[in-house]
Amino acid sequence: MKPHASSSLIWRITSIASIVATVLLIGGFVYAIKDVVNPVGSTYSASESDGTTQTTGNSAASTVPPLSDGVRVVALGDSLAKGTGDDDGSGFVRRTVDLLQQKGVSAKLVSNLGINGQKTEQVLSSLDQAGVKHALQQANLILLSVGANDLFNGGEALGNLQQQTPDASQMLKNAPETAARLKQILTRLREINPDAQIIYLGLYNPFGDLQELRVPGNQAVTSWNTSVMDIINKQPHMMLIPTFDLFQNNLNQYLSSDHFHPNGTGYEQIAERVVQSLQ
Amino acid sequence: MNSIWPLVQNETIKIIKKKRFYVVLLVLLVLVPMFTYASMREAQENRSKFGDDWRVELQQAITDNQNSLGSDRVPEEWKKYRRIFIQQMQYYLQNDVNPNEPGGVTFTREFLDNSSSLFIPLLIMTIASDLVSGERTGGTIKMLLTRPVRRWKILLSKLITLTMFTSLIVISTFIICYGISGLVFGYSGFTMPVFTGFQPSDAGVNMDTVHAVDQWQFILMQMGLIWFVGLCVGLLAFMVSVLVRSTAASIVIMMAALIAGTILTNMASSWASAKYLFMVNLGLTNYLSGSPAPIDGMTLPFSLTVLAIWAAVSLVVSFAVFTKRDVLN
Amino acid sequence: MMKKTTSEQSATLAPSTEANGSGAVQEHEIVLSAEHVKKKIGKRWIIKDVTFTVRAGEIFGFLGPNGAGKTTTIRMLVDLIRPTEGKIMICGYDVNREPEKALAYVGSIVENPEMYPYLTGWENLQHFARMQPGVDERRIQEVTEIVRLDERIHDKVSKYSLGMRQRLGIAQALLGRPRLLILDEPTNGLDPKGIRDMRLFIRELAAQGMAVFVSSHLLSEIQLLCDRVAIVGSGRVMAVGSVEELVEDKEHLVIWELAESERGAALLGSLSGISVLDHNEAHLDNDTAASLTANSIITRTPEEQIPVAIRELVQAGIAVHNVRKLNPTLEQLFLGITEGETIE
């Protein structure tokens, strides 16, 4: 009779399926315990996989088309690269890309690797990371902003205001090492991506509206910018975009509420300069 | 009556004919396409942002996390998670392996990872919670217990059946997930390497023990751990089902416990002794992928022990109560 | 008169070893015995003292009002409830110690025959057959035919009528060829034809040597069906005896409707053996009490005196409109047994 056939069929299928499943899962369970409790480290080499992964490697730089075929931007560095202080978070990087697009230039932001508070040392070490290298290799325009945190110690100068009045020499205490690292950074960047245009963002003096810091700040920033210019001028496809003059008398207008980072308008000004420099 | 198998056969047929298992399959068949679609949209959006370059995409994710590390508004535990995430992702990049290689297999792995502590236990509960209280609600318990069979044997047959269906649910989840997501993402990726053996510590991750396994091996391990979690939750739900007269009530009790577990896991850390609660220990697959445990001091052996003790206690209670208790109505 | 349950009666129980493992059904073999069974739930003694025996081939009634402890007792007989004290033996096995042996001889329906509604009748029977040794598909077919469910056996139980469920319940009880069949209020919810069929069916089973234990709160049903009966009230077996003893022995209540009720009552009262009762002391059931008029006369009359009384009335010129002999009600039985004590 059909009905009992269905019952015993259900039973046969379910029991066999579940016994197979249970054995399999117990196997997986034991395997998992072994693997987690007693892990054996091994270095992975791509040959272990059977080729379902990408084998493109890290030499993609040569395939990046020249600027004239479309601008491909990667930003690197500190909070300015990231765009901190901008009301809509774009920063000069995204604004640069947008401005280019408005002008009818094909432009794309490949990646923004800006991290708040980064100093030259961290940027330098990040250049050893595979992901950072890879992203940089995808660019034909690299926007670099670094150094301010080394010199001003992340705005610490502001905090020390009460105890003593800093002078230019104090701010420039770190300048020689910073400049040396910047040089290393630029060299590494060149190695990673030999063809890309590299734009370094010059420093402005964020303390211009504080009486005690105005003059020493101006001196320090100018001195730094000069020494950087000195490095950059010796390299091909590199330039420094000055911002010192831009901000000097417009701090109220261009600085955000933290009195350190630019606001949207400030970033827009920087972006315009970058775009101009590319024409 | 010597053999237990005819009794197991009875229980199996009842679960199938009562359509409890179909409900589980139906839930999977409805939800998995939704998750697949959501995941597909996410992939499309990322593609429009990053093109086909997963390395840039991954590096951007790393950078975003690095940025949040500097923020004072991000709680310290989250920072710990993110530091570990960053290190893991950098490891993947370094080895030029895409951890999110699109494909049905990867989707399945991620789905399993997320369903271990709540979704699959819930599915198993739909069966476990009804095993005994269902007989009570329907009054059939009187027919069942007036047979010439010892009560412990009847209970044991229900337990064996529960184990069988726990296995079937875990495997079905895999099959349905793979089958449906494969339509969208393709069916390849079993041999793709996945890194495991990350050992999170306060300082970050110990990378010494990291090694690659094929994705199918990883999924097998995941399913094994999920199976164990499911079995323990099943045993607890089973005990509640013995203790409580109505199926609805026993489902509500277990559901409350599981959801409390999810909430506790997210709040976690400050209440250290919460780690002895079973529901905080359900995310066993995290130990595979190397995410840090919700509470300090939790390791895979610890979680396994906690779960096993809870399960053993519920087993003892189930048998003690079921074999002794008067059936009054 | 009926015997009161005494220790003398339990002494008449055959030693349980006599029935041990014997395959063939012997006449008068004791199939079920309960000895001073008591049950305490919480702080209350629900069952205070239940003692009786049931023999092969007899239909044993378990009669008592609702709440007397019938269902609790039945649940103890089939090991759903553990007695606090006392012993229940089925075919020589202690039900609570060796349920897997004792219950092999029992088929039962406790309260309603609740089967799995999502399975077909056949699947239900298969389910229970798997829990008992020696029950094969042929036996399932047999019991299906016995209860005449063969046409609908492959339908889902959720589509069955109450009567069909009752029959399926009997079928599952019969599956294991039991020597003891326990039925809890088997005619509950059945229509008159169903009740008659059920009665015939139970008789037939008993005739084949099966012991049948039937609980009921209706004396009439027990009277029509049972050979022997135990009367339970407030957790105690108050009397055990044959139905004839129980009913025949009683003086009957007779209701008279006479043309001249006052003279008639006086005349009836003067006859030997007849006593006239007040309407209230008669303890009538509700239906009968409602049918009485102010002129109705109720007497306690030995059966053989009824024709005598009618003759006397007619000779005295009192027209007799109606004479009704009442079967005793359960409550009246209790009164007889407890000699005036009412049911607690």
Structure in words:
Chain B: It comes from Paenibacillus hunanensis. The complex is a heterotrimer of chains A (279), B (329) and C (344). Helices cover 52% and strands 10% of the residues of chain A. Chain A is an alpha/beta fold and 279 residues long. Chain A has a 5-stranded parallel sheet, with helices on both faces. In chain A, strand 4 (197-201), helix 10 and strand 5 (238-241) form a beta-alpha-beta unit. In chain A, helix 3 packs across helix 13, helix 4 (120-126) packs parallel to helix 9 and helix 9 packs parallel to helix 10 (211-232). The model of chain A is unreliable at 47-62 and 159-164 (pLDDT under 50). Chain B has one domain (5-52, 101-322). Chain B is built from 13 helices and 4 strands. In chain B, the strands form 2 sheets. Chain B has a two-stranded antiparallel ribbon with strand order 1-4. Chain B has a two-stranded antiparallel ribbon with strand order 2-3. The radius of gyration of chain B is 22 Å and the shape is globular. Chain B starts with a helix and ends in a 5-residue tail after the last helix. By secondary structure, chain C is of the alpha/beta class. Chain C has 2 domains: 3-247, P-loop containing nucleotide triphosphate hydrolases (Rossmann fold, 3-Layer(aba) Sandwich), CATH 3.40.50.300; 251-327, Alpha-Beta Plaits (2-Layer Sandwich), CATH 3.30.70.100. Chain C contains 13 helices and 15 strands. In chain C, helix 7 (192-207) links the parallel strand 8 and strand 9 (211-216). Classes of the chains: A alpha/beta (279), B mainly alpha (329), C alpha/beta (344). Chains A and B meet through helix 1, strand 2 and helix 5 of A and helix 1, helix 3, helix 4, helix 9 and strand 1 of B.
Quaternary state reads heterotrimer
Low-confidence stretches of chain A: 47-62, 159-164
Largest sheet of chain A: 5 strands, parallel
CATH superfamily of the largest domain in chain C: P-loop containing nucleotide triphosphate hydrolases
Mean pLDDT of chain C: 83
Please identify the top-level CATH class of the largest domain in chain A. Answer: Alpha Beta
Summarize the structure.
Chain A: This is Lysophospholipase L1-like esterase. The complex is a heterotrimer of chains A (279), B (329) and C (344). By secondary structure, chain B is mainly α.
